[in-house]
Amino acid sequence: MLNAADLSALSITLKLALLTTLILILIGTPLAWWLARTRVRFKPVIEAVVALPLILPPTVLGFYLLIALGPRGPIGRLMEALGGRPLAFTFAGLVIGSVSYSLPFVVQPLQGAFTAVGRRPLEVAATLGASPMDRFLTIAVPLARPGFLTAAVLGFAHTVGEFGVVLMIGGNIPGKTQVLSIAIYDHVETLEYAHAHTLAGGLLLLSFLLLLAVYTLNRRFRMV
Amino acid sequence: MAIEAHYVVRYDDFVLDAAFTAPSRGITAIFGPSGCGKTSLLRAIAGLERGSRGEFSIDGVVWQDATTFLAPHKRPLGYVFQEPSLFPHLSVRANLLYGYKRTPTASQRVSFDQAVELLRVAPLFGRYPSGLSGGERQRVAIARALLTSPRLLLMDEALAALDAQSKAEILPFLERLHGELEVPMLYVSHATDEVARLADHLLLLDGGKVRASGPVAEMVTRLDLPLAHSRDAEAIVSAKITGHDETYDLSHLEFAGGRFLVPRVGLALGQPVRLRVQARDVSLTRERQSGTSILNSFPAIVDDVAEESPSQVLVRLTLSGVPILSRITRLSAATLELEPGRELFVQVKSVAVLA
After folding, report:
1. H or E element at residue B31
2. Chain B within 8 Å of A141 (Cβ-Cβ)?
3. pTM, two decimal places
């Protein structure tokens, strides 16, 4: 059914999606928290930038990332100056691309969840002696739990499903940067429909199960 | 020792500029029409109002002034909000412990068992806020606030969202609180019955400014303030149960200006009580009446007279210093030749006893 190349594409995909989700939760949480509470005037600018990947063709994002990460791009040069290698066509490059591309899928549910928590529970916690960090961890995060679940699953699933960005900056190197969606494309190009079916069907099922889990769990959270 | 406050908070369409001094013991009611700034004032005291400027100190400890701003979580206060504010993801017990655990042991003066007993919340421990009635939620919220051993308890219309029954269920708890714990309270309300029952001191807010403040018995009878002119205008009289009449089943309630006889109340001798005497239940006579069914008659001196309508006047009298109101017709006032300083008799038709 699956050959070695398929299996490595699967493992790279899962690794990429897990790592991306983890990084996105780590940077998305403070960003979403800030967006949900700030009253600064340039907030719409930040919100627009975060939402850009939603409407931008992935190839556009991939193209700019390729230039930035490449040997002559600002980030690439910085990497070289620090004694590293340019990030284009590497797994690390893929992670950076995925993080940028899936950012809104994590930040928006979190921002919505934090906004829904509102100020009141945090004010109450303050009058009960909880410091800002304390009330964030013991009140805001638990109350925003459905948002975290949605954010993690959407971030993960969206990363699994990406194509354009990965193709642009990953370069489709089997065993290194070739992910499932691109492997499917390759199989179709070479008329290996059976292979394509297996992978495509697997992805379809995985995506459905993930979303089903989100909706089921979120319903249960709301009932508590 | 006292609470001293002066706050200025600017909103788009409203300025709160309130300065007041209140005793740092007992219950001070903050009273006024909705939109007068009561809640803003309370939030400013708690440090929750961004952009508030001002000073606040209690018994000489400064929470806020030109150079100091204690963060809300560093102010030793308890805050009970109008709407339910329990944390939905925590059980009742965990809600109660939330503030208790964060109070340094050295400053814990209210024990867990004491607050739990006072508000009778032990049976609710394992339940979640979503499964509680409105009255139960507020009881838990009050116990939770008390468990931080606050130096000051802020209550923002804590009973306003409750139906009459839940309200009647909580009022006795607040009275016990008042009696058993020495925590001063700022109690925001627009319900006169709550004020009459609980408050020792009254702060009248209007349009973001302090209109007047003083002892509650004084404030509700001042003719220059709106409270005395409400339909249910009343005087609040502090009294003590001094005896019971077994033959006619009456109780003797002694106050500074004499002794009331009322249908027997089931309270112990020596128990302090508050009496509400409505202005419409007080009539005036030039001589002490004999041959009347009215039991309660006292000598009084007219203190102030205000015309309320072409037909009615409101009279403020003092009974050995205790102020009382009487609403009579303008004709009667003319016949009695009422003017400040005149001595006459008041007849009180009925009294409500607040335990």
Report:
1. strand B27-31
2. no
3. 0.84
